[in-house]
Amino acid sequence: MDGSHFRRQAPIGPYVVDFFCPAKRLIIELDGGHHNDDDTAKRDLERQRWLENEGYRVIRFWNSELAADLTAVLERIYVELYGSREAETMHLEHRRKRKTST
After folding, report:
1. Which of 35, 34, 30, 31 is nearest to 20 (CA)?
2. If DSSP codes are grouped into helix, strand and coil, which group holds residue 84?
């Protein structure tokens, strides 16, 4: 997406997320079929709740969605980043936390 920056396999707290846009605190998760298993789905829900409680937005896509309709997936991500399909792209910046030395 023009103007945006995503990190792949980014560590956040005790988790590693698939894709992360720091400027919008947006996390994108891509799930395969094993995420339908009860235990995995439960862990995913706990993980998502933790991330949302920390102020992140999480959107999930099935791998099959990506393969079947990449345009729709990209459109959804665009709306999450810029607010609407008609919004113009802009350079998104995030503020890095700087470590202070004492």
Report:
1. 30
2. coil
Strands 26-31 and 57-62: parallel
Domain extents in the chain: 7-82
Question: What's the pLDDT at 82?
Answer: 85
User: Percent of the chain, pLDDT > 70?
Assistant: 74
H or E stretch including 29? strand 26-31
How much of the chain, in percent, has pLDDT values that exceed 90?
56
> Using an 8 Å Cβ cutoff, are 51 and 26 in contact?
no
Nearest to 15 by CA among 48, 63, 53, 57: 48
Instruction: Identify the residue with better confidence: 16 or 35.
Output: 16
7-82 in CATH: which number? 3.40.960.10
Angle, vertex CA 19, rays to CA 23 and CA 63, nearest 5: 140
